[in-house]
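Model: Ready when you are.
Researcher: Fold this.
Model:
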Amino acid sequence: MPADLSSSATPSSNGAHVAYRPDIDGLRAIAVSSVVIFHAFPALLRGGFVGVDVFFIISGYLIGTIILGGLAAGTFRFSTFYARRVKRIFPALLLVLIACYGFGWFELLAEEFKELGKQIAAGAGFVSNLALWQEAGYFDTAAETKPLLHLWSLGVEEQFYIFWPIALWLTRRNRRAQGWLIVIVGIASFALNVFTVGSHSVAAFYSPFSRFWELLMGCSLAFLTLERTAAAAKSGNFMSITGALLIAASFALVNSKRVFPGWWALLPTIGATLLIAAGPNAWVNRNVLSRKPLVWIGLISFPLYLWHWPLLVFARLIEGELPAWPIRAEAVALSLVLATATYLLIETPIRFGQRIPGRVAALCILMLGVGYAGVNAYQRDGLSFRITSMASRFTTTRFDTTKSWREHVCFLESSDRAEFGSACVDSGHGPLVFLWGDSFAAAISPGLRDLQSHYDFRLAQYTASGCPPLLPADARDPRCARVHQQSLAALRETHPDLVILDANWISSDLASIKDSIAEIRADGVKNIVLVGPVPQWNDALPNVYWLYWRKNHHQILPPRSSFGLVAGIPELDGEARNAAAAAGVRYVSALGVLCDSDGCLTRTGAGKGELTVFDRAHLTPAGAKLLVDSSVDQLLIPSVAPPRQTSSGAM
């Protein structure tokens, strides 16, 4: 919905007289109501989105009247024009953007908040249509989760407000040239719309160049009205009835399956043009559009448009699906309340109240600040510390992977050189446990380290991201080949008493693990353990906490839960068990330790406890300790390492 200019103006500050027409406010009401109904209850009015096109006509007519009239009278000033636009558009828009940011801070996941930040920045910069042009279409499923999607139309209008006043000012000394300018640019824009809508539908929908013709149709009506001030009373009724029928036909015939805008956009735009051209005394305008309820909806149409879509989207995000119709009805009712309050308490005082020096500058600075907040949220990946902070109300997750996993030394990232440090094998002469695998193996290393306080063994850690312990060594990529060559060299040199294999297993890995096991056996290792897959979540576990909190009326995710679990892990656990049995090695079912019929552990320990994983599946040190402690026998630790002697003192 565009930022419609107020038709309630009397003589404008530019000197152009814009007589108040209640019927135009009534037409606004029809336009905004159709859009709101389409968004809330699309099955009731499948063509309701064309209300935006009606608004383009209204805005083009009013903006054209102000500019053309001011230029003709010699009173048009760019500074005054843009100051009026700021006072008209910024107050309500700022309020909605700030409210969306505040809601998102407390309720949205990191990725959702990052996307919202991008939308806020684009909305504050009036380039939402250009941002959306690079993404998905207006009717795509993803559009239903974008709280500020509707600001695309505001972007089109503001871009028109930048270009069109300058174009008309350059032709101010020649009315005929102004008329031809409107006609030529309008036809070119409409032709671009028709030629691109079939092959580049998203561009045709969002591009200002394929939308300007709608505003120019309204502007052309303003030009003709100023040239011929005497209305044709005899044709007024016919024009108003025809216009109303065309708009009604567009609601009935246009839908998301049509190629739009294209030729179909002529139905609502010609209809709106005819209704405005018919004049306030035409039958439909006087007896329908000028009714007080419609006029009032028209007066609050801009804030109503701004509020209704974010409320519907946030309701959908909280519910996790399309909300039931009573919830959508409540969102529409709340948008009406907020629109009324915004109009009475924010818009009207700022636009028509006492003049305050610096008011326009203050609004511009605030808009820049809001835009920066959006950019910051986007660049900082949705400020994910908000989610970790929320989850920490119920749990703690305090550890540093650099230290716990021995990053860049015994756990190599993809950016590291494929060279393990000399400290990856504990010094001494006790039994040696050799841990070989990827980041999932690195994640259980803190549990094995903790176990050293109870059993006398040394630990060797050779782990690298994205490199499960598969042979031949070049099975994954050259980097993994170099990693595994070093791992095998260390294994042959140290002669470990026990080798533990762990990774983010997939079926194909398990089918070929036998080759790695055969190579380890050939090097003289008798004790080999395969650790199976851990439970995985659809999102990072802190995010799952947030999702559960948001969806279940601020209830805490239980210590055991199946909410948000990835399906298929039990089947993978069975494959891993079979692979271990076929290779004749011991198997540790991580799934069996961490999950039961009530679900999988989300946190462990007394009190607040600690999260078992910090992302989708990597164990925290607390989760690793639980896994290792609960499967110490299956890990064969007591078989290869004696318990440490504990001293007892006499009282």
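Researcher: Now this one.
Model:
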Amino acid sequence: MADQSTTIRLTLAQAIVRWMANQYIVIEEQEQRLFGGGFGIFGHGNVTCLGEALYQHKDELPLYRGQNEQSMGFAAAAYAKYHLRQRLMFCTASAGPGTSNLLTSAALAHANRLPMLLLCGDTYVTRLPDPVLQQMEHFNNPSLGVNDAFKAVTRYWDRIVHPAQIIQSLPNAIATMLDPGDCGPAFLGLPQDVQGWAYDYPAVFFERKVHRIRRAAPDKQELADAVQLLKSAARPLIIAGGGVQYSGAVKELSHFAEAHQIPVVETIAGRANLLATHPLNAGPVGVTGSDSANALAEKADVILAVGTRLQDFTTGSWTAFAQEAQFISINAARHDAGKHCSLPVVGDARVALEQLADLMSGYQCPQSWTTLAAEERKQWDATVAVNVAHGNRPNSYAQAIGVINELCDPQDRVVAAAGGLPAEVTANWRTLGIGTVDVEFGFSCMGYEIAGGWGARIAQAERQPDKDTIVFTGDGSYMLMNSDVYSSVLTGKKLIILVLDNGGFAVINKLQNNTGNESFNNLLSDCPTVDSPFAVDFEAHARAMGALAETVENVSELGEAFKRAKAASKTSVIVMKVDAYEGWTTEGHTWWEVGTPQVSESSKIRAAHEEVESSRSKQRRGV
């Protein structure tokens, strides 16, 4: 350890970057850099000082230049998700709109509990040049600015007004981002003048620091209560969430389920906790789930929820389960463990499952319940086979999913988000490899698909360079954010992107129609301000950004195009039109609460409102 009296004179920006370059983490008994690098777009507020510092460490902390700050944040989130929150990226943006563009991606990371460090330009602490370019002035609160908006969408927030403050703030930010119970994005506002101010930092501050993810053991009494309740169960069910993977508890989950023959259902974030062929895998649960999982959910008497925040798409807005069903929630986050009066087991999922298994010795789920689960899953597999089959019918999302599922490598990574594709992937994708599915539905954020694919591919290339990242996106999300097709080409991070064009926002049009409304402003053909709808040439657009691209007419051609994309060495975009009305997966849906008008001149809307409200009696009221 360095002499405590030894100091190094650095600017604030230089100190931040040097400190980041010396952070390491132990993963599977090996030390790796905590930061895989960063994403950055320079402008005033970060180019002169932070840019200078990053240049000095460009080998240790590679900086990927994004095309849009929001997509940079999406890429950073996907990178952290691939690495199971054990490695992360930083993002840097200029003061003003460059930084505010990161708000949506910070919200996505916050909702999904994903770490990323935001290093953003800020206005001058001295206020001598105010008002500066792109400054948001508040006449009655001069300290308030755009960066304060990040307080709502980050787990840790600080504005650095003196270089010495990072001695405390940086370790606190890392501690938050690596805490399984409090994980999420961290934000540091870096005023433009303070970034360049020098300070005599203790040399010890920059010594190599090795981090380890904390594994909190659950309280013994909470475990004992959970065991007592589970052993009383006649129809137990396990809900496996994304936290199972983040904890590295996939094997423990499988062993626990197998030892006691308890059926397992998966959340959207928990897809790929079990292979599709696992005999206890009863399918995805909830609004975009499966008939098999939802049939079990409504009959289960004790539900063990592991690593899930019990979002409404998992719980069917709390109608998917019997009113009298009792919940046990294993979660590192106290807030999640106690939801809906669950019996909480606050702690690491792996540790909790290991200890629970020891205490559950001798318990066996009734054979009739396990047999029912297997029968339900068999029927659901038959339903999926029909959904993905292609023949003399319009192209659909499910058919495209089936073709790719059949041809991909078991370790290829699948990325989807927002719109209709998350539901279709969740319901119809048959998991071939553990942890290979990234369906971003925590924030249900359009535009994540290609940007998230790029971030996932950067991470995948570090560990599985011979595998592919496959992106499913609709035309709406593609139009919203597509510039990382170009990023993937520039950086040599190959993607296979399926653009499934249904002529607008078809899934919201479906919701609109299902609630009695007329089609309006979702499909291009139904937009009153559109003069003459025309099809975008997505193939030509992708080619213009340097990708390989082709358009196919049907799913048979899609399969051949996918084979060519697999064989190619750079990003490929495959475009296929799908029907906006036909081919949706209609099975497996639980009730979902959406606000419908209590009063309307339309008889269809009134009837739809009554139909929606007819299921409300099943809704659990938090007890």
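Researcher: Key takeaway?
Model: The chain has three domains: 7-211, 220-379, 389-577.
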